[in-house]
Design brief:
Blueprint: H1 2-16, H2 33-40, E1 45-48, H3 69-75, E2 81-84, E3 87-88, E4 93-95, E5 105-109, E6 113-115, E7 118-120, E8 125-128, E9 131-132, E10 143-147, E11 153-155, E12 158-160, E13 165-169, E14 183-185, E15 188-190, E16 194-199, E17 205-207, E18 210-212, E19 224-229, E20 235-237, E21 240-242, E22 255-260, E23 270-275, E24 278-281, E25 284-286, E26 289-297, E27 300-305, E28 308-311, E29 313-318, E30 321-326, E31 329-331, E32 343-348, E33 353-356, E34 359-361, E35 366-370, E36 379-381, E37 384-386, E38 402-403, E39 409-411, E40 416-419, E41 460-464, E42 473-482, E43 487-492, E44 497-504, E45 509-513, E46 518-523, E47 528-539, E48 545-554, E49 561-569, H4 574-580
Parallel strand pairs: 1-2, 2-5, 3-6, 4-7, 5-8, 6-9, 7-10, 8-11, 9-12, 10-13, 11-14, 12-15, 13-16, 14-17, 15-18, 16-19, 17-20, 18-21, 19-22, 20-23, 21-24, 22-26, 23-27, 24-28, 26-29, 27-30, 28-31, 29-32, 30-33, 31-34, 32-35, 33-36, 34-37, 37-38
Antiparallel strand pairs: 25-26, 39-40, 41-42, 42-47, 43-46, 43-48, 44-47, 45-46, 48-49
Length: 583
């Protein structure tokens, strides 16, 4: 679990850094909880108190609170918010009243609120901060949260031990447009049956969720997956799937971090992007019972970019087409048995696949398997394939591959797959229009060319310490490389930070302008990949606020490079609160 925590921290880091434009239409799925809360303020706020309330009360104040959440669901209208006070509510809430654009209906937990979950057959519904368990034995109500509707916002819930699954964003076949533009973010899903999240419909955003411990319906029946996906236009981003293992409750499931197939009530998965996800699924139990990153059947136009996948089998794709697999870091585990057929990528009757700029680290067996039909339109190259035990990987390199070349990670044993300054992955990839940033959200390229793998080097920002209060010193370090050309770095400080001093490791002039609140580094140092500019500041406010350090780097590239880093002043970062919640 120590390595898992490191990966969770890396995910959280990527969420704190603002996502850059992906140049794709469905990137407009970004939804702001702040805007939802502000919109809800146009309505009324009601209260539910399971210990002291009464459904005959008005609900408009804490001392006039209702007793049940269902009373609120049956009463409130568009723009209203219900605050549920701490307690256990042994009820399954059914929501059929819709909010409207700009005036959603919001249910938010105050403190520890435990329920049997929500069935939502409505639009513009927001559900924040609940613990959900002990769901009924029912196809829909058995899910922690079940949604048939559009513009839902499901955030920061802890869902565990459910009978059907964690979260279902569902639509019937042919009615996909009725379940669209939902946001499922920062939920924790543990020991749910079948899957942590299942998404259908159109243009939904599944982001920042943690899924672990999924189990079969009963030993010997059903699978145990992370995320299942159907429909189109979704973004599945920065989710963390881990520790779904074989045992007494999981005797023989297929365990896939991401899975899709066609048939029945399911629309073919197509035009979906997977980015910045982490999957740890190094399971090898029996033939057909192994851990897979992606199990893809009957899908098309999927984009898999900037993911970190550690699995017995990485991508298993059949009867599909037009897959783009670019700038990922894939790893097997050389200690696992070979007799259950591990591989990096297996393509069966899957033409028009692009596989570029990936690092394939410690492949146990085949790097790429492709049948004759899959050879049509196959575009492979600029990948790094390396075994740390010195043995030659199975297969042959494609054009521009780096075969048995050590990628030089920072610490692969600790799951830190950032590149060292002398990594041969730097600037060795091919330019691609489908990858515009990296796992941490930094733009690509940040040098002469694209780096291979999920991380781009060398520009990044770090702050220390991670939690600061008034009068504390906050150190901001900008790491960068130089190419022998003049370098100008301009870093703008927020008003909550006072400038103290600065240092630079590569020779240059560093100045500070109090008028513009900018620190400027100018110089023409020799080529180097390990320069840094360190700026010391002092916190001048006692307000809890998120501030952003923005930096522009001009290194004689075609375009200016812009990077940023956010930090919380005077309080715990939001993600630490989530992680510290009792599982």
């Amino acid at each position: 679990m120590g390595n898992c925590r490191n990966l969770r921290t890396s995910i959280v880091r990527s969420l704190l850094i603002g996502s850059l434009s992906l140049g794709l239409a469905f990137n407009n799925l970004q939804v702001s909880r702040t805007s939802i809360t502000a919109a809800s303020a146009m309505g009324f706020t009601y209260y539910v108190d399971g210990a002291n309330g009464s459904d005959s009360n008005s609900g408009i104040s804490r001392d006039q609170a209702w007793r049940t959440i269902q009373k609120a669901a049956n009463t409130i209208v568009a723009g209203d918010t219900t605050t549920i006070l701490p307690g256990k509510y042994y009820e399954r809430i059914r929501i059929t009243r819709s909010g409207t654009s700009g005036a959603p209906i919001t249910f938010q937990a105050e403190g520890s609120v435990i329920t049997r979950g929500f069935t939502i057959i409505a639009n513009y519904i927001s559900v924040f901060g609940f613990e959900i368990s002990d769901t009924p034995n029912h196809s829909n109500d058995g899910w922690g949260i079940y949604v048939e509707g559009s513009y839902c916002d499901i955030e920061e819930n802890y869902i565990h031990s459910t009978l059907e699954g964690g979260i279902s964003i569902y639509s019937d076949l042919g009615r996909e447009a009725g379940t669209s533009y939902c946001l499922v973010r920062n939920n924790r899903l543990y020991r749910n049956t079948l899957a942590g999240i299942v998404v259908y419909g159109r243009n939904n955003l599944i982001e920042g969720n943690e899924i672990w411990g999924t189990i079969q319906y009963s030993p010997g029946y059903g699978d145990a997956d992370g995320i299942r996906f159907f429909g189109s236009g979704h973004i599945i981003r920065a989710n963390y799937i881990h520790d779904i293992s074989y045992g007494p409750e999981n005797t023989d499931p297929h365990i896939d971090c991401f899975q899709t197939w066609a048939g029945g009530d399911r629309e073919v998965g197509h035009d979906i992007a997977f980015e910045r996800n982490v999957c740890i699924n190094l399971e090898a139990h029996a033939s057909g019972e192994v851990g897979q990153g992606f199990m893809i059947e009957d899908a098309n136009h999927l984009t898999i970019r900037n993911n970190i996948i550690r699995a017995y089998r990485i991508v298993n794709a059949h009867n599909s087409s037009y897959l783009k697999i670019e700038n990922n870091t894939f790893t097997n585990d050389l200690s696992l048995p070979l007799n259950y057929h591990p591989f990096m990528i297996d393509l069966g009757e899957t033409p028009y696949v692009v596989i570029r700029n990936n690092i394939m680290y410690d492949p146990e067996a085949h790097v790429l398997i492709a049948d004759d039909q899959s050879g049509q339109g196959l575009d492979v190259g600029y990948n790094c394939v390396y075994r740390s035990d010195g043995q030659n990987p199975e297969g042959n390199p494609y054009q521009h591959d780096l075969w048995q070349v050590n990628p030089l990670f920072v610490d692969p044993g600790a799951n830190d797959f950032h590149l060292l300054p002398n990594s041969p992955m730097i600037n060795s990839g091919i330019t691609t229009d489908y990858v515009v940033d990296d796992f941490d959200g930094f733009p690509r390229p940040l040098g002469f060319g694209f780096d291979i793998g999920a991380y781009e080097f060398p520009y990044r920002i770090s702050t220390n310490p991670p939690i600061v209060h008034k009068n504390d010193t906050l150190s901001i370090t900008i790491f960068f490389g130089t190419n022998g050309q003049p370098v100008t770095i301009t870093s703008t400080l927020p008003i909550q930070l006072d400038y103290l001093s600065s240092t630079a490791t590569c020779p240059a002039t560093v100045t500070y302008s109090n008028l513009n609140r900018t620190v400027t580094y100018t110089g023409n140092p020799l080529p180097a990949l390990d320069c840094n500019l360190q700026i010391f500041t002092q916190v001048n406010t006692d307000q809890k606020v998120s501030v952003t350090m923005s930096t522009t780097i001009d290194n004689d590239l075609l375009t200016l490079q812009k990077i940023s880093k956010s930090v919380i002043l005077n309080g715990l970062p939001h993600y630490l609160t989530l992680i510290q919640k009792k599982r």
